[in-house]
Amino acid sequence: MIKGTIILESLHEDASLTGFTFSVREIGRGRPRLSERQLEANFPDVWSAIEFELEGERAGELVEALSKALNPGWYANFSTDTETFIVFPGRTFRYPRRDHDGRAEAQAYGRTLGIPDHQLDWTE
After folding, report:
1. Per-residue exposure over 87-102, b if at least 16 CB sit within 10 Å of its own CB, e if not
2. What is the mean pLDDT of residues 76-94?
3. Is the pLDDT reported for residue 46 higher than 90?
4. What is the 3-state secondary structure (H, E, C) of 77-124?
5. How far is 70 from 93, CA to CA, in rounded Å?
6. Mean pLDDT, rounded, for 107-115
7. How far is CA 73 from CA 6, 8, 86, 100, 111, in A?
8. What pLDDT does 123 receive?
9. Is residue 20 over pLDDT 90?
């Protein structure tokens, strides 16, 4: 079972995640605290988050689809029972759940994109 979160505003306008049957666990909207870089890049001030589940062993396919669908400066995250996946446009981090070094490496990369620490807070 795959569980994760996608921020709808992170997807570019012609993005499509077709061929997946997502079960939506929760949909929420909120006003995140944006970094200076995000403000300069005109990130939206309200974000829509979809928490989802996906049956089966389709992590590789989901990584590929998200990597192509995400706008620069964004990421999506999901996990299986044993692994965590952090997907940035064109780059993915995959590590055993609760692996401190894997998490730290993904967070460090996110910082290079201007993502503030308080947004690099995915659950595992």
Report:
1. bbbeebbebeeeeeeb
2. 96
3. yes
4. EEECCCEEEEEECCEEEEEECCCHHHHHHHHHHHHHCCCCHHHCCCCC
5. 15
6. 95
7. 14, 14, 13, 23, 9
8. 85
9. yes
